[in-house]
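2024-03-11 09:14:02 INFO receiving multi-entity request
2024-03-11 09:14:02 INFO entity count = two
2024-03-11 09:14:03 INFO echoing inputs for audit
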Amino acid sequence: MTPGSYIPTEYFPVLILMLVSIAFGLGIILIGGLVRLRRPYKEKLTPYECGNPMVGAPREQFSIKFYIIAMLFVIFDVEAVFLYPWALVYENIGLYALIAMILFIDILLAGYVYAWSKKAFEW
Amino acid sequence: MNEIFGTLGLQNTSFIFQLLIVLVKIAVVIAVTMLHVAYATYFERKVIGHMQVRLGPMRVGPHGLLQPIADGVKLFFKEDIIPTAADKTIFQIAPLVAVFATLSSLAVIPFFETFYIANINVGILYLFAMSSLGAYSIIMSGWSSNSKYSFLGGLRSSAQVVSYEIAMAFSLVSIMLMAGSLNLVEIVQAQQQYWYGMYLFPQIVAYVVFMIAAFAETNRTPFDLPEAESELVAGYFVEYSGMRFALFFLGEYIGMIVMSSLAVVCFWGGWTIPPILTQLFPFLSNIPGIFWFIIKVYFHIFLFYWVRATLPRYRYDKLMALGWKILIPVALGNLVVTSIIKYIF
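2024-03-11 09:21:47 INFO inference complete, emitting structure
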């Protein structure tokens, strides 16, 4: 097989379902648009704050912790993605795969312990 | 036209035929899912009602059976309010993303032996991709609403979803290791080699981690902090109304089906029953697989309601501590132990 000639036909139904689900969501909103009420006025269109007038800006400063969690997520999720192909071929490679992956996990474990000791998981 | 179909790897006549089959399958799956979502709300209110010694919905129809239809019609006629301060385009797209991410996850779920929309060999990876996409709808709605409650709800929810996704991924890597495949059909078939026919017993640790993470991923109680109504009103979708709110609701309930189906496929042997049972009672093999699949999925959906009626909401710092300090090390340890045991035997 020449490179670029492979067409993943088994993914074709997935593509159709994706298109159908977008059409489904759009369809519900559009059909609803034909029958529903439209009576907007100024107070109704203000952000909801339990009936009081809005105080301050809606997008205030927020905790730095959310950034740290996002960064840690990227690291650990990429680690998980590296584990997928390893799990698939593990039976064929055997001991070498086991040792290599335990070393890989150990390196990440060191980072994990460091993050824990720096109180990245405390709120 | 024939040349185009030819490059698609399909014969010209069979292409239309295959397309029809796929469309019919999709129609069946979506219709059953919608019916399920409608009555899942009824089932939930009844279950929680009876657990709290109430009757639940009783007024609309006999035993309130028409309640979901009445709710749907009501939502259909409700005004679609878009706040003036909102970022209109993103505000309008966000619920579509929510329903898109969960509805297209159904593509790879094998409902029984020969019924699935697509049998792709990266099934679990696809499901993870779609559940990550769900986080976008939360961030988009939380940010674009331009309201304090939805902003805080969106932040909390996205941090929670990404944290628990790691634990969920690690718990499923052990399953991939046991089955040697990412294909959900092959994972179900691989479980038949045991007399008990499921990974639930050798992978009980992974199952517990997976279920806890599934509750957090679908934002259900006890991890429903993004929606914590006593502090955030409704969290990231507080500004939504009418059909757009209904789409978020739909997304949450389809998400529950997807997570329950994934748990059933990966840990409970999908549509199969333990081989020991079919050996002892041969007549059981005449019952179609979809029956067992639905029973197992509904057990898990009942579990979602049961936990909601039993447990109070978690505190946010405890939620993050549970995810990062307990579930991730436990799932990783389980993975290492599984790989060592698999190497020895």
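2024-03-11 09:21:48 INFO post-check: Chain A touches chain B through 66 residues (CB under 8 Å).
2024-03-11 09:21:48 INFO post-check: The radius of gyration of chain A is 25 Å.
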